[in-house]
Design a protein that fits this description.
Alpha-Beta Plaits; alpha/beta; Rossmann fold; globular
């Protein structure tokens, strides 16, 4: 029995980019098609995700996170190496694979001229799935979309579009759920509801691939971490072991505060338009929180580990 939902075997993905052809005879074509340059988005990446597990892909902008999601979804294919999804090669069995997955990503927006419900129903037909109406109702209620399910998507705010896109993917209850930064552009309460729904699917044994810039989100949802940078795989790790190990080495947290008051702190790292960012040593967290409670702030967020520090630490170790 196949135990892996996803397998990448030395996968390289190249995208065309702006650049002149090396062969001068092709120069006339350059003025029609100026994309003779090449950029390697992924460089011989290999990793595996077991069935029923949640893998978090983390890395800076341009690291290759979305490219991995597209490869798993059979939207694009590698130049070299192989991608297997539930034991099937993506190049040889793309349609069979697509029937088992659902993806949420900014690169795959909803149809603006359809309602939320019509988008979900249309997606279900494309995947050859029948909707679990009870679960669909739960998803819409959790995301605060039940009252707006018959509204056209074109009138939605950015946050509502993100929630509707997530609802479309979750409602299919796929064997493999791909979430490309699902919590971006959502408020704190919406993020928590999305996490609840993801955890429900985890309990049902669904496999989930999730990308994020924030280790806090990965820690809450994922069994394992894939750390990538500039198209290269830096390693795969058990989430709890990785967080504990790196936090011990880096030894500080960032506290994000939004306030109209002027906040005084010796740990202030930067401020901009009412947003204060504090870099606090782990040994001083309780002391600093006591200092902050005297201020009237509208929002507070604690990031235990910054992505930039994690990548730098790993490359130096």
């Amino acid at each position: 029995m196949q135990s892996y939902a996803i397998e990448f075997d030395k996968v390289t993905k190249i995208y065309p980019t702006l650049g002149k052809p090396k062969n001068k005879l092709l120069m006339p074509l350059y003025y029609i098609y100026p994309y003779f340059g090449k950029v390697k988005a992924l460089k011989e990446i290999s990793f595996k995700v077991k069935k029923g597990k949640t893998m978090g892909i983390i890395g800076p902008n341009g690291a290759g996170k979305t490219t991995i999601c597209k490869l798993v979804s059979c939207i694009i294919f590698p130049e070299s190496g192989d991608v297997f999804v539930f034991g099937k090669n993506s190049k040889e069995n793309p349609n069979e694979i697509k029937g088992k997955i659902a993806i949420q990503s900014e690169d795959f927006p909803l149809y603006a001229q359809l309602t939320v419900l019509e988008n979900i129903e249309f997606s279900a037909k494309l995947h050859g799935k029948s909707l679990d109406r009870e679960f669909l109702k739960l998803v819409l209620e959790k995301l605060g979309l039940e009252g707006d399910k018959n509204r056209l998507v074109e009138g939605f705010s950015t946050g509502m579009k993100v929630k509707a896109n997530i609802a479309r993917a979750l409602a299919l209850k796929p064997e493999l759920l791909i979430l490309d930064e699902p919590l971006a552009n959502l408020d704190v309460f919406a993020r928590e509801r999305v996490k609840e729904l993801i955890n429900m699917l985890k309990k049902e044994g669904k496999t989930i691939l999730l990308t994020s810039h924030h280790l806090n989100e990965i820690e809450d949802l994922c069994d394992e971490i894939l750390l990538i940078d500039r198209g290269k795989c830096l390693g795969t790790f058990k989430t709890d072991e990785f967080i504990r190990k790196v936090f011990k080495k880096i030894g500080f947290v960032r506290i994000y505060l939004r306030s109209r008051e002027r906040i005084e702190s010796r740990y202030l790292e930067r401020k901009s338009r009412g947003l204060y960012v504090l870099k606090v040593p782990s040994s001083k967290i309780k002391e600093e929180l006591k200092n902050l409670v005297k201020y009237n702030f509208t929002d507070i967020y604690v990031e235990r580990l910054g992505l930039e520090e994690v990548v730098k630490w790993y490359l130096k170790k």
